[in-house]
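User: I'm putting together notes for a lab meeting next week and I want to include a structural view of one of the chains we've been expressing. I don't have a solved structure, so I'd like a prediction I can at least talk through. The sequence is below, exactly as it appears in our construct file.
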Amino acid sequence: MNKKHHKILEMIFERPIRSNIRWKDIEALLVALGAEISEGNGSRVRISLKGIRAVFHRPHPTGDTDKGALLSMRKFLQNSGVNNDEI
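Assistant: Thanks for the context. Below is the predicted structure for the 87-residue chain, given as structure tokens.
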């Protein structure tokens, strides 16, 4: 992971939860962590990381991830064994 990926990971685990992280930056972080990303129907994205699978919706029209999706992403990362200790 590069410096930008570390910053995005740090932002995901910040409290209070943010609402301004670009989805494309989160996808880049996931790829850097070794996740497999595949397209679903519409704006759905299937993600598999370390044997854990989840489906997310790409935010539109702005591209910024809302607080609910960010909380779900945080839980997904924790379930996959990724946490803020890796920052």
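A couple of points you could mention at the meeting. The chain has a mean pLDDT of 91. The helical segments are 3-13, 23-32, 67-79.

User: Perfect, that's what I needed.
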